[in-house]
Write a structure and sequence with these properties.
The complex is a heterodimer of chains A (545) and B (396). Chain A is α/β, with parallel strands linked by helices and 545 residues long. Chain B has 8 helices and 19 strands. Chain B folds into 3 domains: 138 residues, Probable tRNA modification gtpase trme, domain 1 (Gyrase A, domain 2), CATH 3.30.1360.120; 70 residues, 2-Layer Sandwich (Alpha-Beta Plaits); 126 residues, Aminomethyltransferase beta-barrel domains (Elongation Factor Tu (Ef-tu), domain 3, Beta Barrel). Classes of the chains: A alpha/beta (545), B alpha+beta (396).
């Protein structure tokens, strides 16, 4: 027989959102337990040492969306979190040219002009439009999604807030907003720019983590999702967490424990326990059972309800809606230990833009074809990647003079097609190696000597990410960020307020509004909702309230 | 007919520090300011990345324009102890002490660092020119005061990898504790001091050795993210560390025209640097009197709600009565808080510490807005990290 204990609230999964919910609840005075299946906390925001001397942010790898209100409420810097922005980025072409994004505005204008004078002004208009859309959307991130079907005063007030914000835009801009939320990033960029290389450099943000192509409607919003964060108020800027993304989770974990919380690692939830339509506890795989009247699941909505709950307790319509929730694995990851800083011969010596995100894709057609492979169940033969070398900035990631490279690869299928059979089980050492070879071939386009520098590489397919982290199909956002699954439709129409058909059971991960990315907003919003439900809404700290 | 003297013309405008050739080559921003008559970088590249290099890697900042005075002779210890408010007898040889010094009315003339070679040999390093005052203080004592400001070049090497940079440059400072100072090589002195609150060192060499030490550190810093910085980034980290700046957070009393602009060490929150038990020192009587009567002002560290920097904001009590103002305010990218130093009129900041508000003005694309934002008084520095004090220091 295992252990049995009672708590005020149990959080299933120590991802960054679960830990955020746990922190807010513990700070409000609740006795909170976090249960985690792995022997470490962090979910997909982790720093792992898989090769002696190197640290990998082996899932999520850069930081921007993390809400500053939450960082401040929970005093995360006091627990060791330091976010360092990075500057610039570049896309390298086959013929030895590149387009570099530079944080120095004047240099950026000159660089764009090197490709097209017309695109210089186009870029100004493009960024103005995007920032304007970001400014519109940011206030919604730490609010509940408005629910147009509800007549409760609070839901009406959220709806009024949306209407008021939208009204502030004016008719013309509102039209632009609706276009932006529904159109493809390819069409949007075609409207602005004439240089394919520049379009391609920008377009990556519209497909990262998404089972859509650059010309699929909805990808413009995905770009917005990647731009709406900030580093110290610089909207759209990205940075590294010093010591890797695990620094975020570890700071949350430390803040939680200081607030009196308890974390149990090493055994995952087997079953959410439900009695008379109410959540009552969790039974772990190791036989331990814990009881609480509030259960918060940091797992995605599919995993929560389809794998760890008796179907009998759920309304059939709800189950159906969960089943159709789109959560497709579309990306892989290489984490690489390098013996020295590899050269990208096209880049000028000491170019600061090399400290940013690097790519080797040169046309939107190339990206669209990469998507076609994925649709058929193959990894892209000519993949898009988002490559960074954080050790150029963060001295803690690799031994002196050596480097760590993170390569996010789009697209890679969850159910890999081998000889016409599509299955996650097709991912094995041989297919992982073939996938990695394909990525290395592509990296060589910009960095011909890359293979010579590799000391160790970890290759992760969507299948691996699902198995280790628990994200269904390895989808990094816990559900596609398409308009049909956003706001009051996220994750399930009628259940967009972090609630579920089971009383006391909440969804606190990125399956909920406002979605994925290391943002912590779903976790904080869910905590606010939980505290409000139990009559302790006043205990939510000022910034995220 | 008497012979006429041909006077040498003084240089006009700003003159170069010994490190200027290296700084000029690195300057992309072309953003320079005058500092004690020298040309000094405000920003070399971008303030953002220079700031983060201080808190994440290592940075070089040229502090040669600081005023430096050598006080030597049998009475050197007595002169220094007459000058400053703390007890220099408690600072051992090979140690550095932060010090303040006051006029007869107890008003701060300047603050700075006292480097103790021995009880007969000191160096005073400070922001304001001080030769005349030192001569006044030393009158009747057996000491020599020498102005070393132009003959000593100095660099501040700050940041979590600064120890690693020194190590790779072949300079062994592993055993040095905070405020230690050593002649690490002939004519090359290193102190474990700085203005950042982080791990860091200051390096002192004769003027003509300047470029050689720069090049040596620069080469060693390649693997450690070493970056040259300007004063603007430095100003951000010193606010995070809770350090005060002359002419900003206090007005050096010898430099003000208006009456009553001087402040005492207690009014600036530095009671701990006043040693009433050490015997006579300049300002002692006035400071004792203020101890009885109570201070007129309080310089406090404050946390301000919201995300907009509050530099210059007026502070109100109950949103109605004006009680002071922010002297230095920034958004802290490391603490992720809106922080400031603020001067409040007594009793605010002393016995009345709640219901305080900052009236923060924000200008955005041609429109001004202002908002009363809650203020919380803090006692600890906004930035504190164990790496700053670890001995031997960590690699990063």
């Amino acid at each position: 027989m295992g252990k049995h204990s009672s708590y005020d609230a149990i959080v299933a999964g120590a991802g960054h959102n679960g830990l955020t919910t746990a922190c807010y609840l513990a700070k409000a005075g609740l006795k909170v337990l976090v249960v985690e299946k792995n022997d470490w906390i962090g979910g997909a925001a982790v720093s792992r040492s898989l090769h002696d001397g190197w640290t990998y942010s082996n899932c999520s790898y850069v930081c921007s969306l993390l809400r500053r209100e939450i960082v401040r409420d929970l005093e995360l810097p006091r627990f060791g979190l330091q976010v360092i922005p990075y500057e610039g980025g570049a896309s390298f072409t086959k013929d030895g040219d590149y387009f570099a994004y530079m944080s120095d505005h004047d240099a950026l204008r000159r660089e764009i002009a090197r490709h097209s004078s017309k695109d210089v002004d186009a870029y100004e208009r493009f960024s103005q439009t995007v920032i304007r859309q970001c400014r519109f959307i940011r206030p919604f991130l730490l609010r509940n999604a408005p629910d147009p079907t509800s007549l409760k005063p609070r839901d009406i007030s959220e709806l009024l807030f949306l209407v008021k914000q939208a009204h502030g835009l004016g008719a013309k801009e509102l039209g632009e907003t609706l276009r932006f939320w529904s159109m493809s990033i390819g069409d949007f960029l075609d409207e602005h720019f004439e240089t394919d290389l520049i379009k391609t450099h920008i377009a990556g943000a519209g497909i990262i983590g998404t089972g859509l192509g650059v010309y699929s409607p909805g990808t413009a919003y995905v770009l917005l999702h990647h731009y709406m964060g900030d580093v110290d108020g610089a909207i759209g800027a990205w940075g590294f967490a010093r010591g890797g993304m695990g620094a975020i989770s570890n700071a949350l974990g430390a803040a939680f424990e200081e607030a009196g919380g308890e974390i149990v690692m090493g055994s995952g939830v087997d079953k959410f326990l439900v009695k008379g339509g109410k959540a009552v506890g969790v039974a772990l795989e190791n036989g331990d059972t814990y009881y609480a009247p509030i259960i918060a699941s940091n797992m995605d909505v599919k995993r929560t309800f389809l794998k760890h709950m008796d179907q009998g307790v759920l309304p059939a319509d709800f189950t159906k809606a969960v089943e159709r929730f789109k959560i497709r694995g579309s990306s892989g990851k290489l984490n690489i230990a390098l013996d020295s800083l590899p050269k990208f011969p096209a880049a000028p010596e000491g170019a600061t833009f090399m400290r940013g995100d690097l790519h080797c894709s040169a046309s939107l057609n190339e990206l669209e074809r990469a998507y076609d492979d994925w649709k058929e169940g193959y990894w892209s033969k000519d993949p898009y990647f988002d490559l960074l070398i954080p050790s150029q900035i963060d001295p803690t990631m690799a031994p002196q003079g050596k480097h760590m490279m993170t390569v996010f690869v789009q697209y890679a299928p969850y159910d890999l097609n081998v000889d016409g059979v599509r299955s996650g089980e097709n991912w094995n050492d041989a297919t992982r190696k073939a996938f990695a070879d394909c990525v290395f071939d592509k990296i060589e386009q910009g960095c011909p000597d890359i293979r010579k520098h590799v000391v160790h590489a970890e290759v992760r397919s969507p299948w691996d990410i699902e198995n280790e982290v628990g994200l269904t199909e390895g989808n990094i956002f816990q559900g596609e960020l398409t308009f049909d699954q956003l706001l009051f439709n996220r994750p399930i129409p009628g259940y967009a307020q972090y609630d579920t058909p089971i009383d006391g059971m909440y969804i606190v991960g990125s399956s909920a509004h406002p979605g994925g990315g290391v943002m912590a907003a779903p976790g904080a919003n869910a905590a606010r909702e939980i505290l409000r439900t139990i009559g302790k809404g006043k205990l939510m700290p000022k910034f995220a309230a | 007919m008497s012979a006429k003297i041909k006077a040498a013309a003084v240089p006009m405008g700003l003159i170069e520090t010994p490190f200027y050739p290296r700084l000029a080559a690195l300057s992309r921003a072309k953003s320079w300011i005058g500092w004690a008559g020298y040309i000094s970088p405000l920003v070399l590249d971008t303030v953002e990345f220079e700031y983060f290099a201080i808190r994440n890697q290592a940075t070089l900042f040229d502090i040669s324009p600081m005023h430096k005075y050598r006080i030597t002779g049998p009475d050197a210890l007595a002169v220094v102890n007459r000058l400053i408010t703390r007890d220099i007898r408690k600072v051992r040889d090979g140690r550095v002490g932060y010090a303040m010094w006051c006029d007869e009315d107890g008003m701060l003339i300047d603050d700075g660092t006292v480097f103790r070679f021995s009880q007969t040999d000191f160096r005073l390093c400070c922001q304001e020119p001080m030769y005349g005052w030192l001569m006044d203080v030393a009158w009747g004592f057996d000491v020599v005061v020498e102005d070393e400001s132009d003959s000593i070049a100095a660099l501040s090497l700050q940041g979590p990898t600064s120890y690693s940079v020194l190590k790779d440059a072949g300079l062994d400072v592993a055993e040095m504790k905070p405020f230690d100072w050593r002649e690490v090589e002939p004519d090359l002195w290193i102190s474990r001091t700085g203005f950042t609150g982080d791990l860091g060192y200051e390096i002192w060499v004769p003027r003509d050795h300047a470029l050689a030490i720069w090049d040596r550190l620069w080469a060693a810093g390649a693997d450690w993210g070493l970056r040259a910085i300007g004063g603007q980034a430095l100003n951000m980290v010193r606010i995070e560390a809770g350090y005060i700046a002359a002419g900003v957070d206090f007005q050096p009393v010898h430099a003000v025209m208006r009456l009553h602009r001087g402040r005492t060490p207690m009014e600036l929150g530095f009671d701990r640097t006043v040693a009433f038990d050490k015997g006579h020192f300049n300002g002692r009587r006035a400071l004792l009197a203020q101890q009885d009567a109570g201070q007129r002002f309080a310089l406090v560290k404050i946390d301000i709600g919201g995300f907009k920097p509050a530099d210059g904001a007026l502070i109100y009590h109950r949103k109605r009565t004006e009680v002071g103002h922010v002297t230095s305010g920034i958004w802290s990218p490391t603490a992720k808080r809106n922080i400031a130093l603020a001067e409040l009129k007594a009793p605010f900041g002393i016995s009345v510490t709640t219901d305080l508000w900052a009236d923060v003005y924000v200008h955005e694309e041609g429109v001004w807005r202002h908002k009363m934002v809650a203020v919380v008084i803090e006692t600890k520095p906004f930035f504190a990290n164990t790496r700053a004090r670890a001995t031997p220091p960590r690699a990063f």
